[in-house]
Structure formats: structure tokens, C-alpha cells
Amino acid sequence: MLKIPELVAPAGSPLKLKMAVFYGADAVYLAGKRFGLRTAAENFTNTELCEACSFAHDNGVRVYVALNGFLHDKDMCDLDEYVRFLEKIKVDAVIVSDIGVLRAVRDNSALNIHLSTQNTCLNMESAKFWKDLGVKRIVLGREVSILEAKRIREMAVVEIEMFVHGSMCMSYSGNCTISNYTFGRDSNRGGCKHSCRFEYDIEWGGKKRRSDFFMSSKDLMAAEYLEDLAKAGIDAVKIEGRMKTPYYLGTVCKTYSELLCEMREHGYLSLEKISSATKELRKISHRDYCTGNLLEKASADSIFNEREMIKSSFEIVAIVFEVKIGEYMLAQVKNGIKKEDELELLLFKGKPKKVFAGDMKNVLDEPLESARPGILVKLPYVHGAGKWNLLRRSVSCLQEING
Amino acid sequence: MNIVSHIENINELEKSCESGIGEVIVSTKGLGRFGNMDIPTIKELAVRCRKLPLRPVLEWDILMTETVFRESVEILKAIPLKDFKAVRVVDPGAVRYLMKYMPEVKIQLVLENGNNNLRAIEMWRDIVSNHIDRIVLPREIPFHQLKKNLLNLGVETELYVFGRLPITYSPRKLLDRMGVPTGQNNEKKALAGTNELPGEIFEVIENENGTFMFHSRDLCLLEHMDEISGIGVNWARIDPIPGMDKRKFCKGPFQENLTDRKFSKLKNELLDTDHASYIGDVIEVKNGSHIAIYVKNKSAFVKMNMKLRFLTPEGKIKIGPVCFLKNSSWNDVDLIESGSLAFMNHLSGISNKTAVFMMDA
User: CATH says B2-167+217-265 is which class?
Assistant: First the structure.
């Protein structure tokens, strides 16, 4: 019987944690206020981490805490205490890059250790090296193909996790210090300026090529290769994006989760299911998709030679905060809604449902012609609606976000 | 302090020796990031070094996927490693391979990237243990910290003091699609500039191992050689820089790691809610009517007549009592518990994302 990989989703904030859990993740990765790589994400206070663990565990979801910065000595103070705290609140594993952090985890707890992709583990010998040091699972570098991962899994006998969706570094992860030297912001401590997404003028031999985004990578999408990953024995598949929006997260989690469910039920993925999944994934913001190095070495096709744009055919308009069965859904507006808008409610499972904004009211039950971001609106109840469901709307434009 | 330097050409050997260099780093295709010597040349170089007071060190610093790793090992096996003082490695897979299958080979462990704390350096030292020849120290550690870390390390060390600064290493061939011609050593070379960093020009080199970008300024710590030697660094790496007279120099993070200063500005610490009295956040404000609070904290509640403290995203503090309390159906209630929305009287100066706390906790 085909072993189905665990779906590991990012949770950059308590709200995103709810999205990941309700939209089908098997595990979430998140970080506290320190020691992680995404310092610009909202992240979790210690109290929130405690609550996150209880909440996730109550819903059958595992919690992996990222301690994946490459730390300097002064960042290390309180790490031992923090590790003991994480063990006490029963996180399921910690994700580390830095061997000094790994030692701190080993010395202060019996926590499971996952090796972050930032460590660029790319081969079997490297996997054995980390396994010998007590690492239970390795998040392989995105440069590794499915075939290579299979061999590493078989020969090193260690759990393997691979990225299947989201943004990719052009550089070997953890090996880029452009931000460090040009902006004084350490990319390996969460300060990456995304210099690889900048527009460059390139000169060689008297020739000049203006406006090239030669270091910008397309995004990864491996929905159609989930079956290959499962057959290769990959233990977990990961979604990138602790900084991404709740809408992005909800959609990606739901799509991959439903594909994995389909595989669990039928032992394979139908073409129809894959096609519908990839259509759904194109509705969210992305930079054009590619398969990275999963099948073969990423070629020139993997370069996203365009200015950063939100390319999505749908946008989030609201998040449901309360549901009064048979009466209304109370939602917080994220993008303005007009009376004539036709919305879709993204249920946790199954197809989206239509919602008409025509009957939209405020909390005082006053009818609204339009609703601006940041206010609460009552929308007609839709069967199956739940708290934290997302409401979205079709858009036909591209919004430029970067200059 | 001894000097180690990279050489690209066998004919540079004697000159290196005359310059007082005690050790040369040599690189071959399939092992070194910029390796351009073939195996016969490498073998000849090692033989010629025997007659000179100069020790050769073989560089095996590419990052390797499984397929590349196996190819690299075959190249390594074709080189008489006994003629080399040590092999310089970056990839932990290479470290393990040498320790397990070539235990007689000494390792120069390159910890230049991402091993910026003492625990990390000590852990590596302990793992490689008696196989270790030297630790190549991280580039990101400021001098004052380096000084502390070297006190009891008990192993030979090296620091990069002069040369070009590679700042990114991509496995992808980024210049290929532009039609940049292949030149000497099978490399494509270009210069890249961006409006985001006016006046800075970055050299980009693509070869069979991928694409590398170099900092627009080269590293020069020559004026600090005495200090570096004084804290016990045994070897200084000084690499040749082509066209040196036209180059700009920097000291990297040697004097201060700027990140430490800049990070404090990246986050709004005013919104620290890690407090037992934290209730939740304001998610709607209707002037003259109400504010809506999402009661987030698991053990929190909002009760009629209780006094609340509001911390706005700008850091302003407001205090106010709950004069009316309603649920989303707009019914009066005495208490709203965690996970629900509480609607209370409007207070001026409060905006969305304001954090709400109990007053008397």
C-alpha cells in the first residue's frame, strides 16, 4: 500500500495556523519571536506557542518549531531555556540549520530534530552525517531530484521531507549573503532583502542587457508529482511561505490535502484531480510555476524574468469570524466588497460555494452598498460554512506590487 | 602568522614560494567551485611542491547533489591525496566521506558560511576530531567575538583576510540564456548592476558548477594582520585579485556585524502581547457606535464594567471601561469568552489591530 506523505504547512501567525489546520495540513511549522529565519513574520509569543500546540494537537496536527537561523553567539543566550520550554509544551520537533543550535537542542531536551533546508543537505553521505548526530528528519535542499531523494531515503534510512510548493531561492539555501554585504541584513538570521528579485543591467564584452531579472526563480509547484514522491518513499511534503497570506495558505493546503486524500483512498491520482488542483493553484498569487529540480536540473525556463507581480485570478475578500447557522456569516473584510460582487466561500473540504454580496449588512443589521477593508459584515448563511472559512472573488487584472 | 593562497596556474608555484606563501590551495574541475586544473596538472603540481617549502591543499568545496557527489568521488580517487597536506571541504557529506573512507586524509574544515557561534565551531571540531588539520573560520563573525571564541579552541585556524568576496552560489546557469560567450576556463563572465544599489557593480561568473556572484568590494583586512595574529589565528588567506588597482575594498563584518543594529528596527516591538493580561485584538471600529474585539487569549474574557487597557499599533495607551457589551447578534450580554467577538462602546483613539489587555492583571 502506498505510504502517503505528511503535509507540512507554514504558520506565520496564529491566524495562519488556523488556516493551515482547518484547510488540511497534517503538520505545521512555525517560529517563536526569536531563533527563526523569518523575523519579519508575525510569529508566536510563548503564550501563543503554548496555545498553538494545544490547538494543533486537539485537531490531530503536529507542530514543528523552526529554530533555523544561523545564530551568532549573542543570539544564543536563552536558547537552552527556550529549548526546554518547547519540550515542556510538547512540540513535536524542532527544525534546525545551525549545528550549534542542534547541540543546544540535544543537550537540553529529547526533542525530535529536523534538519532545515537552509543546511543544504543534498546527498546520502550528508544525510548519514546528520542522522549520526541525532537528526530524525531531513528537509532536503531544493536542488535534489525525486530520484536522488529516493536513493538518499533508502540508503541513509532517515525521514525525508521535500518542498512541493512555493517560492524558491535561486542560490543554494543558506549560501546567499547578498543582503549581508549590501544591506547589512543577515539573510541567514531573517533579514533577507530578496536581492535576487531585483532588476539588473547585465554587461559583458561591450554588450549590455537592460532590465533583466536573471536571479529571480519561478515558484515551485509539484501537485502533479505527488504520486511520484509517495512512491519514492518521501515522508513529508512541505509548503513554503510563513510570510504568505491566509488566502494563499488556505488554498494551497486545501489543494494538496485533497490530492493526498485522493491518493490515500484510491492509491493513485487521477488526471482529472490533478488538472483541477493545478487550476486551483493558479488562482492564487504566484510567479509562474516550474518543477524546480524535482525531475531534472532546473534550466533557463526556471528563471522568472519579470517584475514582481501578483498573478492570481482570485483574491481574498474576507475571513469568516462567526457563523450563526441558518442566519448569517460574520466576516472581516480584507479587500473592499461591493453589493454586486459574486463571492466564493472556500469551505474546508469540497467545492467552493457561491455567496452573493447583495444582502450584505453591518453588525447593526443596516444594509450596505459596499464594505471597506477592516470592517465586519454579515453575509447570508451558506450551508457548511465554518469559522475561519475564506471568502474570495474572481479578478481579471494583474496588480503590480513592486515598482 | 602563515600565509595561504589560492593559485590558478601551476606556473605560479615558484612565485608563490618567493612571496612567502606557505601553503597553496589548488582546485580541479569537479571538486572546486572555480577549479580549472586537470588531474595530470594537479599531480605534477604536487610533485613540484615537494621540492619547495610549500604545501599544496586540495579544494573540494562544491555543494553536491547525490549524482554530483558520486562523480566527485571518482575524481577524488584519481588524485594521489598522500601528496597533499589536506583536503578543504564544505559539504558535510564530503566530511563524512573522507572520515569514513579515507581516514588518513587530513581535513581543512571550511566553516565560512553559517557557523557563526562558538558552539557550532566546537561541535565541528569535536566531530572531525583527529582528522582535523585546520578550521577555516566564519567570515561573518566580528573581530571582538572572534577573539573570545578562539581562546580555548585548541585547533589550528585560518581567516580570510584579502580577496574577492563571493556572496551567492547558485546551482543554476543564470547567464546561459543571455548568450554570454564562454571564455577562458570554460567560464562565462558578466557584470551586474541594479538601481537598488546605485554605483555597485557585481561580477558574475558561470561555470559547470553553477553561477557565482561577487561583492562589488573586495575584502581587505591587511591593516589588521597584527590584531588577527595576536588573537591566535595561525593562517591568513590572501588571494590574488585581478586588476587590483581599480578595485574598491571593504572590511565586511570584521568590525561590526550591521545586522545586529538593523534588526531592532525590523519589527514593531510595541505590539508585544506575550502577557497574561492580553485579551485579544480590535478588529472593527465604528466611530460613535462600537469597537469589536476578537477575544483571542484562551483564558481571557470581556465582562461588563471591566476596565480595559488598549495598546495601539503606534504604541499609544488608552484606558476605558466596558459600558455596554453585545454579541454579534447585537444582544446585551454580561460576558464574552475566548474565541468570540465582543462589541463594546466606542473609545476615541483606538484603531484596528489595537491590542487589548485586562487592567488589573
Answer: alpha beta
